[in-house]
Write a structure and sequence with these properties.
Largest sheet: 5 strands, parallel
Structural class: alpha/beta
Radius of gyration: 19 Å
Helix content: 25-40%
Number of strands: 7
Strand order of the largest sheet: 3-2-1-4-5
Number of helices: 6
Distance between the termini: 21 Å
Order of helices and strands: HHEHEHEHEHEEE
Strand content: 15-25%
Oligomer: single chain
């Protein structure tokens, strides 16, 4: 069984679709993909996981996998999110951190945004610690740059930017002069179509 988490954006095509699903509906989906995952033989047993906003989701999956395998020497997960009401899996993570029998996991919540210099300060002088950064591209890039400036080994930093940035028009490849409010038609693999705004995330 798989568990998915979706942040609902009012008016977006994906949110409208998800909100319209009912128990018993059948979906065709692709399995997890990408290279943002823990490499046990490379990453060591001291991990710092920092997720901004919904970027925390792949880190939660890592924590679950580590817990199922018996834990590591030290794993710290920090979720940087401005809203107190928007912390997915907060109760689960809090309970795991509070379990006196585990001894390897720490979890905390930081008010967003967590500045790049603060990311580097959290790592300190521990060059053997593997750091995972997951969030919007600009935040991930700033955090990575701060860690490199602090002489943290690049091979000890893993990054992932699964979250669509707020200003999509500022991203590389955005067509010059295209208004993000322009209506476009998207054709899906099954031949059905969606009418969406050019700047609206579909995933």
């Amino acid at each position: 069984a798989y568990e998915i988490a979706v942040r609902l954006w009012p008016g977006s095509a994906t949110s409208t679709f998800v909100e319209g699903l009912a128990e018993g509906d059948t979906l065709t989906v692709h399995g997890p993909a990408g290279s943002f995952r823990r490499e046990p033989l490379i990453d060591g047993d001291d991990l710092l996981l920092i997720g901004a906003g919904m970027g925390v989701l792949p880190l939660v999956a890592m924590v679950r996998e580590i817990a199922a395998s018996g834990g590591l020497r030290r794993v710290v997960l920090i979720h940087a999110e401005a809203g107190d009401d928007d912390r997915p899996f907060h109760d689960e993570l809090t309970a795991l951190a509070a379990d006196e029998n585990q001894g390897w996991f720490e979890y905390s919540h930081a008010a967003a945004p967590l500045e790049a210099d603060a990311v580097a300060a959290l790592v300190g002088e521990d060059r053997d610690r593997t750091v995972y950064l997951s969030g919007v591209q600009a935040w991930v890039d700033a955090g990575l740059a701060a860690l490199i400036d602090a002489d943290h080994p690049r091979q000890r930093v893993r990054t992932h930017a699964p979250v669509i940035p707020g200003d999509i028009t500022a991203q590389p490849g955005w067509p010059e002069g295209l208004d993000p409010a322009t209506e476009v038609t998207v054709t899906l693999a099954d031949g059905s179509t969606l009418s969406v705004k050019a700047g609206e995330p579909l995933g």
